[in-house]
Structures are given as C-alpha cells and as structure tokens.
Amino acid sequence: MKKLINIVSLMLLSAVMVGCSSFGGGDNGTASNGTAGTNGAANGATTTGIDGGATFSGHVLDDPSSPLSTKVIYFEFDSSAIAPEYEAVVAAHAAYLAANSTVSIVLEGHTDERGTREYNVALSENRAKSVLDLLSLQGVTGSQVDITAYGEEKPAALGHDEQSWQLNRRVELVYPAH
What we know:
CATH superfamily of the largest domain: OmpA-like domain
Distance between the termini: 40 Å
Structural class: alpha+beta
CATH class of the largest domain: Alpha Beta
Helix content: 25-40%
Radius of gyration: 17 Å
Order of helices and strands: HEEEHEHEHE
CATH architecture of the largest domain: 2-Layer Sandwich
Number of helices: 4
Number of strands: 6
Largest sheet: 4 strands, mixed
Strand order of the largest sheet: 3-6-4-5
Shape: globular
C-alpha cells in the first residue's frame, strides 16, 4: 500500500512539474502569461527569478537550482531500491523527458567492488532498471532510454572503504551533449 501511495505521489508531482514553464510549459518558448519563459527543448533556456530577472542562463539541465542538475542516484549496499530522497529527482527527469519526446537518456548502472563480476553487472543493471521503471510510470517512453550496466568497472572513487563504496553504488543519468 505504501508503494502505491509513493507512486501516486510521484505521478502527481510529475504532473505539477510538467505544467511548470521551466519544464517546457509553452510550446513556443513563452510562459502562459505571454512573457519569455523556459523552453524545455534541447536548446538553451533561461530560468526567471521571482523578481522577473534571469537567475540562470543556460540549459535547463544545468540549472543548479533545479533537481534536473542532479544526475547521479546513489543506492544502499546490495540494493536496487531508489531511496526516497531521489524520488523527486527522478520525477523531475521524467517530467523533462515526457515533455521533450525527442530527448534521450542513458542510465548507467554501477556497483562497488564487492561481489563477483557477474553479480555486480546484474545488480548495476537492476539499479538502472529501477530508475527506468520510475521514469516509465511517469510517461517516459522506452525509445527515449538506454541502459548500460558497468558493474564495478567504472568506479567514481578508487578507495577500498565505505565512503568510496558508497560513491560507486550509483546510476548516472547521461543526456546527449546539449
């Protein structure tokens, strides 16, 4: 039941985010009030501050004040479950992708060094599939997403301690050059 509530909550959050101009709300790059807004297409974008002045000029995926700037989802040891603190991040990426059907993404799954090579490749794939499942529930089509399972082959940190292992248990959301 709790999982159903989480899914419904994420869908509602996604619907709200799709309606926001910073996620491609107007088809011609204008906000609903007729002023210049953010076009969520693959070209550049400007986020408008509360006072009407531009606070960020660049691509919406790179805006540090947006959850879209977070492109790494971390996982617990031996788990492919998405932690609650990353659900809004995945929802934001889902809303962006659903609003921009020509944009694609690669989900790169990774693990730490513990476990066999085969186990780690399977776990990294399951982590990427968990992100894909959540994206799909929010309107992202399968043709927009590719999965690559690296296992332990591309560590983010080279240490052999819990801090390094935690950084290596991840899925990276990789967009084509924008």
